[in-house]
Amino acid sequence: MRTIDKVYQVLANNTSKKYTTTQVAQELGLTRGDVSTYLTKLFQRGKINKTGTRPFYWQAKNDSGKFKKMIGVDGSLKKLIAKCQETILYPPNGMPLLITGPSGVGKSFLARLIFEEARRQKVISPKAKFVVLNAADYANNTEILSSALFGYKKGAFTGADHDSLGLVDQADQGYLFLDEVHRLNFESQEKLFSLMDSGQFYPLGENKKPHRVQVRFLFATTENVDNILLKTFLRRIPLQIYMPKYIDRPLNERLQIVLQAFVKEAQTVHRQLKVEQNILNKLLQKDLPGNIGSIQNEIKHLCASAFAENPVEDPIIIGQPNEALRLISSDSDVISFGRDIIDFVPKIKKVISEIKLFLQQEKTAAEINIMIFEILNDWFKLTSVNNAGNLKRNFIQKIGSKYGVNVDFAKIDWQKSSQIIELITLVYDQFDDEDASLINLLRMKFPRSIYLFNQFMQSVLPDKKIKDFTYILFFPLFGSISPKIEEINYNAILLAHGKKTATSIQAVVNSLCGNYIFEAFDMPIDSSIKQINSKVQEYLDQQGKNTVGTIVLFDMGSLNQMFKEIKSISNKELLVINNITTAMALDVGLRIQQKQKFKEIAKASTKYGETTGSQYYQGFSDQKNVIVACMSGDGVSREIKKIMDNTLSGKLKIITVDYKKLRHLLDQEDRLFFSNTEFVLTTTEIRNKIPIEIIDIYDVLDKSGALHLTTLLENSGEKLTQIKVMIEQFIRFFSIAGIRERLQILNPDVVIEEVQYITKRYEKYYNIELDEKTRLNLYTHISLMIERMVLTKRESKDLVSINSETEKEKEFFSISKNIFKSVEIKYNIIIEDYEISLIYQLLSPFI
Ligand SMILES: Nc1ncnc2c1ncn2[C@@H]1O[C@H](COP(=O)(O)OP(=O)(O)OP(=O)(O)O)[C@@H](O)[C@H]1O
């Protein structure tokens, strides 16, 4: 390779990088002066760009040369083509390359372009040849294959009456492209890799004078090479590229491929074409084994039969004349064609953001539907997919029959819904799925309907992940029925062994109730309780947070064991009933539908039959437990739980509970919930009427408090040494140093100073002096609160205001707003009334 080419190659290897002259010189071990001369020459020839002034920066122009002919050169094939460029320039004689991929994806096409590009870049002579051998043509005759490749000497075999040059000789100084290389037998593979190593080979019948050649090799195969090619042979081919299937190519590239084929037909028949949009959409979604090749064939057929039908027509109409048609002529611009389909991507994005807005504004599903239809109106005009009937049938089968939802089918616009599905499928690859905010929002508002929607979507988009944007279909399909589905506030599950037992009971009960009450899982006869349990868990994980609890009906096995398993994954109320029958499931279903209380349903379940057993659990845990609930948030409770779990014996189950929920349960005096609770740990004093010990964790920072907690834990069987370690860790956690460690984004020194100031202002206003413990509690609480607010910024319109009940409280709210003003401005946050009410609870005993 000439030095100037070496210099160019350094830049071409990384076209995104800018190099100084010195960097290039260092990389090649040449003098700066020489390199500078070459760089200037390359610049004058227009091969590289120059920027900056002393030092100059040089950058190779991103010139794809012959590869420009390849659709996707700047898109999905960009990296792959950069690799091909590397193989062309690799000194001294290029680099062998193996192109893999299914049939018809463009392997041969790429191989030829590599050759053309090598010629353009002058790394091979203008006379160099591109020799092709398809090993499949010789599949059953390895002798002939070998002689075709390597040639033979007169007399090598019967009929060899003269010396004959093989393809390898013909490809000397140029390229040999071996297609379907997996068909080469081992002997030929060995011969080839020895040729690649030594640059010489022996024709058949020749063993004295080897032929010396300089050949660049390209290989292609549709197979998985690891199992078929010799390891030694493969090792000799350092670079492999995989060409993607047609359907895996991005939409704009598929559009270009389709148009290019139509343009070619228009050129052949010297006519213009008018192609129905629906036909284009179908072509864009085809997943054919022959990929691009098959698409081209289909287009050829379409054109040929349209032409045959009406040979004098111009333009030729492909499709129905009264549908939306697109004009394609022999000079149509492939790049800009069909861009309007891609223009629906921003429209869909608009639909998504409008849905979010509409949901916040509590708009009805009907209003949301109108908005969606309006924005996508152009799409409905452009296409008229005749798939509404299928969609309806599919929907009735999946949702209507199984989940029994009595739908007023007339309310659903099947035509538009199926057109939206068509659009979703077409633009699917244009959306990444980093933003799951729509689904989260919908899940909060419509947990049960979203569950059904997901079930249904799996049949609409099999093998595809349900991306966030696909939820735009939720409203047209589920908008009108979701209010009814969401009325049910239990998780009810049927589990039965056998192929259809559970699902057939489900279909009967759900449709008699006219609503989705039960989900059902048919379990193979040999499935273990663990497997069953993981099904249940998966289901429960997808359900809303506000359900009352879970009811599970199952067919056989130990009630006790099943109950225990499910209990371990749910801390809500739970009722498990065994020996399920359809009648029993119907009774439970009707009770759920009538919104009966959990206790009533549990009570009724005891009377189902002699063989039936039921177990009802109401409470946090059936194990001895300690409840941790901190008003500074779940994070703090979880940390405390962690400390306790790590230091204590594990005999006590440590359960974290939302602070508000705990207060609610205590206010309700719901003793059953606490029947196994040893004590409650919180960060504030809570008044309570039920006989349960509530410990303010800040008390533990004092000696007497620590002693009290120690006694309680010792009574529960914990060891003194472990308790001491635990208390040590609590003290650390609830110190200023502890607060510092827990702040993730704010500067602890600044925040703590601010919080100290806020505390002082309260003390001054009320003329009080807080004790150490309360102060530390306030410090922790307020600093974490500020950080929380910063992390989850909300608009003022989203905030709920709390009405103060007493004069004292009103006064507290009003001065607090004042005290927090500067913090609010500084961090651009709004302190919610709820937060102030928590601080009030902390301070009210002192003011
Ligand atoms: N990126 C592309 N841009 C434009 N045309 C392409 C592209 N890729 C493939 N084609 C066209 O698709 C057709 C099939 O390509 P090709 O024959 O190269 O596929 P292949 O992978 O070698 O198939 P096989 O494994 O069946 O031999 C050719 O007509 C080719 O010109």
What does this protein structure show overall?
- With 847 residues, this protein is α/β, with parallel strands linked by helices.
- The strands form six sheets. A five-stranded parallel sheet has the order 4-5-8-3-9.
- The radius of gyration is 37 Å and the shape is globular.
- Residues 70-72, 101, 103-109, 179, 222, 292-293, 296 line the site of adenosine-5'-triphosphate (ATP).
- Residues 746-847 form the PRD domain.
- One of its GO terms (biological process) is regulation of DNA-templated transcription.
Q: Which architecture of the largest domain would the CATH scheme give at its second level? A: 3-Layer(aba) Sandwich
Fourth-tier CATH superfamily name of the largest domain = P-loop containing nucleotide triphosphate hydrolases
N- to C-terminal distance: 88 Å
Cofactors and ligands:
adenosine-5'-triphosphate
Estimate nothing, just give the exact number of structural domains: 7
Describe the strand arrangement of the main beta sheet, using strand numbers: 4-5-8-3-9
- Based on Cα principal axes, name the global outline: globular
Tally of DSSP helical segments: 37
Q: Major sheet: size, sense and barrel closure?
A: 5 strands, parallel
The fold-level CATH name of the largest domain is: Rossmann fold
Q: What fraction, in percent, of the residue positions are helical?
A: 40-55%
Radius of gyration, Cα only, in angstroms?
A: 37 Å
Average pLDDT works out at: 86
What percent strand?
5-15%
The CATH class assignment of the largest domain is: Alpha Beta
Task: Give the strand tally.
Answer: 21
Query: In terms of structural class, how would the helical and strand content be classed?
Result: alpha/beta
